[in-house]
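Section 3.1: Structural characterization of target chains.
Under the original work plan, the team committed to producing a structural model for every single-chain target entering the pipeline before any wet-lab resources were allocated. The record below documents one such target. The sequence was received from the expression subgroup and is listed exactly as submitted; it comprises 398 residues.
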Amino acid sequence: MDNIQLNNSENIARTSPNKEIKMSQWLKNNLFKDWKNVLLTIVALVFSVYIIARVSKFVFTSDWGVVVNNFRLLMVGQFPVEEMWRVWTAIIIASVLLGLSWGLWRGIVGHVSITIGSVLLIFGVIPYTESSSKVYLFASVIAIAIFYFIGRKVSVLKIPTLVLWLLYIPISLGILNGFGVVEPVNSNVWGGFLLTLILASVSIICSFPIGLLLAVGRRSKLPIIKYSCIVYIEIIRGMPLIMVLFIGQLLLPMFLGGVQLDNVLRAMIAFTLFSAAYLAENIRGGLQSIPRGQFEAAQALGLNNVKLMVFVILPQALKAVIPAMVGQFISIFKDTSLVAVIGLTDFLGIAKKIAANPAYLGKYLELYIFVAFFFFIFCYLMSHVSKHLEASLGVGKR
């Protein structure tokens, strides 16, 4: 018996992979395996060092005063200073929800909370931020931390938190507009990153259910529904986004019988309708990927068409097209810069106007890098969440 156990131990030792590979062995196997790998490694290393050195030199030697002096303008445009409490209220509410979500679900929500909390903390620490803004920034970071611990202890808050997330955009827009009680802030003065975030958020949230209905409607057996959806999708997909924006600004009031809508609301409608058409085709691709046997199995269980679609088909179809949908959301977030052609001043539009100021001539690169940094953070967050969502749902695995 002892000999058998000894032999088994020796076999396990021989067959089990060595998990502690030395760094030198890893470098040899992956970077210096032969003369071709050695050459490629040296070229890549030299190129990387050169790029890092140039970027570091630019970052540490440039005059970032153009960003510091115009930080509030970049963030909120011409939003009145005395009304900034509305924006900060919306940010604090979002911080509370982020903290609760992190405590309740942990996982990827924690990555998002930490990233946004870090950005808020950085802007709160740097000496260039206004004193009044520092108070709100630190309050937001503290709210994330406090409600994280509350979420960990009180699990019954899951449903209320989800409901508040669904209502967050209407609540935030209501705060900006005063809920009909306080004097509203005219949307014509909304600008900068605030306008970009509002346009992207509303478009993404509202276009998803519309695109879902269009995708299902295109597969309908009723000709009037099917061909109406096909005509809408093909017409919108056949037009550039700029044309849709112009239609929203010039023709939408005519279609609504002369009802007057402000420019920001028209832009929201244009982005939503445009994004919905592309989302519909993404979701339709997911619906077509579902095997016929799934439909037949659901019908054999006695499910009607509505239950079949809601409980069996759509969950599988949406899971299959998560990358395509998130790619569309990222595209919409970046395409908000096109509102400059209809007279709105978004994040990039504000940067262009500042760069055109004679006092900041030649400082456009600093402004554009700052704008690109913010776009990167939010686009990367969406991509990062998508990747973890796919992993948790087992997308691509059998």
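Residues 191-364 form a domain with the MetI-like fold fold (CATH 1.10.3720.10).
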